[in-house]
Amino acid sequence: MSCGGNSSDHSTAAAVRTSDGKLQPDGMAVFRQRCVTCHGADGTLGLNGAKDLTQSALTLEERVNIITNGKKLMTPFGTVLTPEEIQAVAEYTLTLKK
Ligand code: HEC
């Protein structure tokens, strides 16, 4: 037996435990780590032509898609983040909406 190395756990972002005890990525931590450079902590920075996330009307699926594949100057995160992290950070961007 090896000492429990989990190969899918290649991410550096923090994780949070849900009420049913499952470990899930912390969307806010991922956002702070990867997205604030262009979008800002509250989503309004707009650097490099980034959209104001407080005004975005996109659905969760559309966000997941853009985050995974990128758009214009936005980097694709499909190779950087796990699908769970992308889902978590997409859900977090929905909370920025005003
Ligand atoms: C290098 C700068 C950059 C980084 C880093 C970045 N974005 Fe973006 N983002 C952009 C740009 C530019 C656009 C606008 C693309 C366009 O013209 O439609 C955008 C658009 C978006 C949109 C679509 C908004 C809309 O209404 O069209 C979402 C959602 C989004 N980004 C989320 C994220 C998340 C989540 C992260 C971190 C995982 C992230 N972005 C990191 C530059 C960036």
Brief synopsis:
It is built from four helices and two strands; from the N terminus they run E-E-H-H-H-H.
- Overall helicity: 25-40%
Average residue-wise pLDDT: 89
* Number of continuous helical runs: 4
Strand content: 5-15%
* Ends distance: 51 Å
Largest sheet: 2 strands, antiparallel
Order of helical and strand elements? EEHHHH
CATH architecture: Orthogonal Bundle
Question: What structural class is derived from the secondary structure elements?
Answer: mainly alpha
CATH superfamily: Cytochrome c-like domain
Give a count of the beta strands, DSSP E runs of length 2 or more: 2
* Rg, Å, rounded: 14 Å
Strand order of the largest sheet: 1-2
Ligands: heme C
Q: Give the low-confidence spans.
A: 5-9
Q: What's the number of structural domains?
A: 1
CATH topology: Cytochrome Bc1 Complex, Chain D, domain 2
Please identify the top-level CATH class: Mainly Alpha
Q: How would you sum up the global shape?
A: globular
Could you explain the architecture of this structure?
There is one protein chain. It is globular, with a radius of gyration of 14 Å. The protein has one domain: Cytochrome Bc1 Complex, Chain D, domain 2. The protein is mainly alpha-helical and 98 residues long. 37% of the residues lie in helices and 6% in strands. The protein has helices at 27-34, 36-39, 60-69, 83-96, and strands at 15-17, 23-25. It has a two-stranded antiparallel ribbon with strand order 1-2. The longest helix has 14 residues, at 83-96. Helix 3 (60-69) packs across helix 4. The chain is built from four helices and two strands; from the N terminus they run E-E-H-H-H-H. Bound molecules: heme C. Heme C binds at residues 31, 34-35, 37-39, 48-51, 53, 56, 58, 63, 66-67, 71-75, 77, 89, 93.
